[in-house]
TrEMBL record:
<dbReference type="InterPro" id="IPR036291">
    <property type="entry name" value="NAD(P)-bd_dom_sf"/>
</dbReference>
<dbReference type="GO" id="GO:0009225">
    <property type="term" value="P:nucleotide-sugar metabolic process"/>
</dbReference>
<keyword id="KW-0520">NAD</keyword>
<comment type="similarity">
    <text>Belongs to the NAD(P)-dependent epimerase/dehydratase family. dTDP-glucose dehydratase subfamily.</text>
</comment>
<keyword id="KW-0456">Lyase</keyword>
<dbReference type="GO" id="GO:0008460">
    <property type="term" value="F:dTDP-glucose 4,6-dehydratase activity"/>
</dbReference>
<dbReference type="InterPro" id="IPR005888">
    <property type="entry name" value="dTDP_Gluc_deHydtase"/>
</dbReference>
<dbReference type="Pfam" id="PF16363">
    <property type="entry name" value="GDP_Man_Dehyd"/>
</dbReference>
<protein>
    <recommendedName>
        <fullName>dTDP-glucose 4,6-dehydratase</fullName>
        <ecNumber>4.2.1.46</ecNumber>
    </recommendedName>
</protein>
<feature type="domain" description="NAD(P)-binding">
    <location>
        <begin position="4"/>
        <end position="317"/>
    </location>
</feature>
<dbReference type="InterPro" id="IPR016040">
    <property type="entry name" value="NAD(P)-bd_dom"/>
</dbReference>
């Protein structure tokens, strides 16, 4: 299988590429990434000479480039490419609409055209395995939950931020291409990921790296916003199952059974690092801050047999240790010294 991975130099994308190359010897990866602030080729330094990994520096909004990649032959697509930081979307939503909506449309157009040219008249005979388009989305498209219940695949979309609104729009486009063009699309919606190589503006790496530097740890509001935490390796295993066994036109929620308040997470990190809670600083809450997310992953468990292997306690401890052992990686990013190959 020749797999196109977009956004493969980012946090989840780079972890997925590393995972799928090890798990599936028959898979080769074309990695398309624009290398924005969160895309970093250092995330893939160990794969620089891998014979089944080819990196292309480019933008998913570039129709010519995307069409050229498909013309070389693509068996499946996993779209990680996205602007994803909520705070940045509040300041300026334009890059989020451009990448998350228009970029997804460009990929869908190219996939639909490729589908028609390659598979019309063949699919019924089963001559080749059809391309699968996996749109990687987020639980944030559902909006905020009350103190009870969990999001299911049937939950209404009620995005609260420009970021989550752009992801909801991309999801609806993907489903529309399935219904209109017959493109075999699958949507995944995951809870908050954590693990190695996460850009240090996100909650867990920000708190770990700030604590390691004995700097204040900023916590929004009262710190009681609840998130369901999913280790990135568990997410990668789920995506592998969706890629090979997911049903076209379906949505799969991927949750880690790891609900914690932000304040609990911060205190756990401080305890693991033997740092004082006096480093915590409560700051003004951000606009539209969803109070609680929680995912019901029973559908992917029932249909594909997936369940998380990492408990939050074990996964967080391993993540803290990774950042402790890879200080040069995050120090270069936080200092602005990291440079991307162009």
């Amino acid at each position: 299988m020749k797999l196109l991975v977009t956004g493969g130099a980012g946090f989840i994308g780079s972890n997925f590429i590393r995972y799928i190359l090890a798990a599936r010897p028959g898979v080769s990866v074309i990695n398309l990434d624009k290398l924005t602030y969160a895309g970093n080729l250092e995330n893939l330094a160990d794969l620089a000479d891998h014979p089944r990994h080819a990196f292309i520096h480019g933008d998913i909004c570039d129709r010519r480039l995307v069409g050229e990649i498909f013309s070389r032959g693509v068996d499946a697509v996993i779209n990680f490419a996205a602007e994803s930081h909520v705070d940045r979307s509040i300041v300026d939503a334009s890059p989020f609409v451009e990448t998350n909506v228009r970029g997804t449309q460009v990929l869908l157009d190219a996939a639909a055209e490729y589908w028609r040219e390659r598979f019309d008249g063949q699919a019924a005979a089963g001559a080749e395995r059809p391309v699968i388009f996996v749109q990687v989305s987020t639980d944030e498209v559902y909006g905020s939950l009350g103190p009870e219940g969990r999001f299911t695949e049937e939950s209404p979309l009620k995005p609260s931020s420009p970021y989550s609104a752009s992801k909801a729009a991309a999801d609806l486009l993907a489903l529309a291409y399935h219904r209109t063009h017959g493109l075999p699309v699958v949507i995944t919606r995951c809870s908050n990921n954590y693990g190695p190589y996460q850009f240090p503006e996100k909650l867990i790496p920000l708190m770990i790296t700030s604590a390691l530097e004995d700097k204040p740890l900023p916590v929004y509001g009262d710190g009681l916003n609840v998130r369901d935490w999913l280790h990135v390796e568990d997410h990668c295993r789920a995506l592998e199952l969706v890629l090979f066994r997911g049903r076209p036109g379906e949505i799969y929620n991927i949750g880690g059974h790891g609900e914690r308040t932000n304040l609990e997470v911060v205190r756990m990190i401080l305890q693991l690092l033997d740092k004082p809670e006096s480093l915590i600083r409560f700051v003004k809450d951000r606009p539209g801050h969803d109070r609680r997310y929680a995912i019901d992953p029973s559908k992917i468990t029932r249909e594909l047999g997936w369940r998380p292997r990492h408990t939050f306690e074990e996964g967080l401890a391993a993540t803290v240790e990774w950042y402790r052992q890879n200080r040069s990686w995050w120090e270069r990013i936080k200092s602005g010294a990291a440079r991307h190959c162009r």
